[in-house]
Amino acid sequence: MSFPIDRLFLLIIPACMLLLGCTLVGCWLVQRRHRYLPWVAGSYALVGLALAWQTLLPPEELQRWAVFTGVMYLFGAWSFARGIAGYYGVSAHPRLGLLISAVVLLALHYYSQVVPDIWTRLYWLNAGLGLLQLLPAPHILRLRPATGWLERTMYWSYVLFAVNTSIRPLLSLALGSLTEDGRGFSSYWLMMLATTMLFVLLFAMLLLANSVRDALSALRTERNMDPLTNLLNRRAFREAAEPLLSDPRLGPWTLLIGDIDHFKRINDSWGHARGDYVLQNVAHALTQQVRAGDLVARFGGEEFVLLLRSDLAGAEQIAQRIRTQLSEDRSLLPNGERMTISFGIAPIEDLSQLSAALSHADGLLYQAKQAGRDRVHVARRVREKAARGL
Ligand SMILES: Nc1nc2c(ncn2[C@@H]2O[C@H](COP(=O)(O)OP(=O)(O)OP(=O)(O)O)[C@@H](O)[C@H]2O)c(=O)[nH]1
Question: Which keywords fit this entry according to its UniProt record (predicted)?
């Protein structure tokens, strides 16, 4: 049996689609987070298989299998819409999709078995495919997903793809050179393969870029955030403090170190889970009291560091507010006892003083602990006291 070499050549595109589908599934298996990926992969696989099937069929068989291949294309198109809808978190309207598919399949049956007409069949099929793909589009547009370039490119190429699908037969008609079976090297078939491949590649690249971006941002979060409290860790605090303290237009800055009093006793008396709960509540209280642009970090254990854009007096007020709020919250410890925190507060003028200011605030915190805990020790006071010989 001989098989025309040009047909084999045309099989490259469906094969690429299947490979891309497998890549997306692989990507999903690694991360298991992007649940829209299997839908897009499924649509690639279905459309790829349908294209391969049609390429391999002898011309006289195309009509007989029109409904079968129609089912694959239609489900592939809806699966794509489902993937896009999943990406933006909206519905792909499955019932409406089913209705559109049923109407198109009836038309395919009529124009293949009752009154065979390949071009009317193509109009129906492509209009149906375009409509199915566009099902989630209005909802996505209302969401205004234009936040980043990736989302914007994704959305508009998706809309363009759906519109191109709908009007493909008309474009082909305008280009002329139609062949009887609408396949082979007919303008329609070549244009269909080319545009499908172009968009399919574009989407695969955008989806993979999205996966990589998410993986990187998850890594960055893991690297920078304390997982228990969602505060910055020591490394991220330094990184975030650098540009702030290097900008002479900002400031004045003050560094605070807060440390929960007798935290070991909380762990020993009520267990680690209660200790963690207390840490989370302290973190919440700290972030509640500071302003946007201030930094709050957990340096480890029960020690918290804050960089506030404020003078010493303002920082002291904030520390006192946090201290009062926490000590008045009787729900933190199971026996209703007060939970207290001590602070050391030191000024800082620029980045070069960061380590010195941290030691300074730490020393003041130590003094606060020595003085009985549940208090705020501020650098100026210490200096004033020293000046007065106290
Ligand atoms: N639950 C919980 N405990 C932690 C965590 N990290 C450190 N700890 C505990 O925090 C306690 C710190 O105890 P200490 O350094 O003695 O401090 P303290 O008991 O608060 O005493 P003072 O600071 O002097 O008031 C230790 O028991 C650590 O095990 C954590 O992530 N979760």
Answer: Membrane, Transmembrane, Transmembrane helix
